[in-house]
Structure formats: C-alpha cells, structure tokens
Amino acid sequence: MKKRIFSGIQPSGNLHIGNYLGSIYNWVNLQNDFDCLFCIVNLHAITVNQDPKTLRDKTKEIAAIYLACGIDPVKSHIFIQSDVKEHAELMWLLNTQAYFGELSRMTQFKDKSDKFKNENIPLGIFNYPILMAADILLYNTELVPVGEDQKQHVELTRDLAKRFNNKFGETFKEPEPYILKDGAKIMGLDNPDKKMSKSAESAYNYISLIDSDDDIIRKIKKAATDSENGIKFDKNRKGLHNLLTIYKMFSLKSEKEIEKEFENKGYGDFKKALAEEIIENISPIREKIKEILKEKKYLDKILEDGANYARNIAEKKIIEVKKKMGII
Ligand code: AMP
Ligand code: TRP
C-alpha cells in the first residue's frame, strides 16, 4: 500500500511561482510514489470575501493549473473540496475538540486578523485551520506537502488527531508536514522580507502563472536587489538570494554552477538569464492552462472521478468518527 498524500490550494487570487515552487512542483514528483489527493479548497477561500462568479471560475482554473503543471489524473486524484460534504461535517465535529487558545496562536490568523477591528474579525479566518485539519484527517493522510507557512497548521492537525485518539480511541493518523528546503518560502520580488503573496497589493510582488513573457521580463527587471557586487548565494543579501533560489529551482543547476556562470557578471546579465529561465518554464504551463480550460467536459470528468474516489474514503471515516463520538 502506498502512503497517502493530501494537499490543497485556495481558488483565490493569482497563483504565482511561489505557489508553484513551494507546492505544485513538488507534488508532480511525488505522484509516482504516493497515493495523492490534490484538492481545490473552495470552502477555505470563502473565509474572505469572494465574488461568486469569480470564485466559480477560479475553482476550475486551479484544476486546470494542477493539470498544466503536470499532475497526472491517472496517477493522482484531483477534486473540489465542496464536492465532498464530509469536509464540512468533520470540521464541526473537530471544532468541538479544539481550543480557543491554540487557534489564537496561529501566526496566519494573527496576520490576517490584524487588518480588522476586534469586533469584526471574521470567524472563518479563526477556525480555518480546523477545516484544514478535517481535510487532512478524513483520508488517513501521512504526508502533507506544503510551503513553510502551513507548517503550524499541520502541527495543529497532529495535536487534534492525538487529542481525539486519546479521548475516543485510535481513529486518525497523525500526519507529517513535508517541506522541501528550497522553494518552501519564495519571497516577494518587491520586498524580500515578506513571502510572495497572491493577495499582495502590487503586481510587482509576484510572477503569476498566467503572466505574459513581457510581464515576466518587466517584473524581474524591477525586482529589489542591493548595491553590492558579485552574484553569489549569500543569505544576508535577501533580494539576490531569493532570485538565485528561483533561478536554481527552474534551471536545476547547482549553486556552484550558478556562481561560476555569473562570475565577473552583474545584475543586468543575471536578471536577463533569470527572466529567460522563468519564461522557458512558465510559458508552456500558461498555454496548457488555456487549452485545458477550453475542454470543459474533460475537466469536469476528472473532477467528478476525483470526488468519487475521495468521497468513498471520506464517507467511511465520518461514520467511524460519529460512532465513536456517540452521534447516533
Ligand atoms: P495559498 O496561496 O495560501 O493558497 O498557498 C498554497 C500553497 O502554496 C501552500 O502550500 C503554501 O504553503 C504555498 N505557498 C504560498 N506562498 C508561498 C511562497 N511565497 N513560497 C512558497 N510557497 C508558498
Ligand atoms: N490552508 C492552505 C493554504 O492556505 C490550503 C489548504 C487547505 C491545505 N486544506 C489543506 C493545504 C490541506 C494542505 C492540506 O495554503
């Protein structure tokens, strides 16, 4: 039996190369060795305001992005979270076992809630990690490949699983986060102190998977660097380090090779090579996304098959959980 992997992305904003390098890129390599479930987590997306039509379109777009990036529907299962109602159901059951304190300590919640007055903090951004825990625990997931920012949520998931198992008997597997060293945290191009983010105010923060070649060239040219000399992997030169990490991941070259390639060269040459490397990797994905979105029936069939596979596992798990809790 292959170990199971579960991961998901919210259908909101524009998926960027941080999402790609931090998650989908890794998923593609995992699908040969694991039983993979890749979800489009639309119920998570509504924790902030969404325009219904845009949300509907984005949900399909993420599915097309998964496929265009190389997720193979023969090997992996792609589905929409809301197509399997057990996610919402398990979330309520787990809600009753979670603590206010532990949720208040989530860094993502602290960041997101800072933008609101106390009275108006949406409850969805507070218990969002419990829905994520439900996603993971429904499927006896062993590994959760995510970017660094989600590690704390996976740890909370482990705590909830442990707590539930102690109280009601062995029910859930405790999942491990699976975070790769490179790409786990791609920083903003305009501000290398903060992670690249789909919800960034400036489009110069990220390169989206649907940016044109010209957009990519323009954004890399503008990316923040420093006034020092030499193209070297130096963690203290944050802007450059981030750009070099992106170059390393897309080119599959080693750090030594890269430093040699740009020995005696400056930012101009490096940025030009970086933009070309990104375009070489991203432009085929962009074209594939467009093609897949045109094949509506093909896409719907993949999502339906994915949901059927997931539902079959989730239904059994929810029966077990309810029985253990005495829910008739
Ligand atoms: P989100 O954009 O929050 O829906 O994240 C989707 C996935 O991309 C999650 O696995 C995140 O951890 C990952 N991710 C988001 N932003 C970055 C980033 N700047 N660098 C690396 N991974 C990221
Ligand atoms: N919370 C994740 C994010 O914002 C998305 C997500 C929801 C997820 N459920 C998940 C990731 C389960 C991994 C496993 O990026």
Name a few traits of the molecule.
single chain; 328 residues; mainly alpha; Rossmann fold; Tyrosyl-Transfer RNA Synthetase; 2 domains; three-stranded parallel beta sheet; two-stranded parallel ribbon; 7% strand; globular; binds adenosine monophosphate; binds tryptophan
Describe the structure.
The structure is a single chain. The chain is mostly helical. It is globular, with a radius of gyration of 21 Å. The strands form 2 sheets. The protein has a 3-stranded parallel beta sheet. The chain contains 13 helices and 5 strands. It binds adenosine monophosphate and tryptophan (TRP). Adenosine monophosphate binds next to helix 1.
The overall pLDDT average reads 95
Superfamily at the CATH H level of the largest domain? HUPs
Low-confidence stretches: none
Element-by-element helix/strand order:
EHEHHEHHHHEHEHHHHH
Major beta-sheet overview: 3 strands, parallel
Number of structural domains: 2
Name of the CATH first level of the largest domain: Alpha Beta
Number of strands: 5
Strand content: 5-15%
Helix content: 40-55%
Task: Write down the overall geometry.
Answer: globular
Multimerization state: single chain
How many H/I helical runs? 13
Question: Judging by the overall fold, what is the CATH architecture of the largest domain?
Answer: 3-Layer(aba) Sandwich
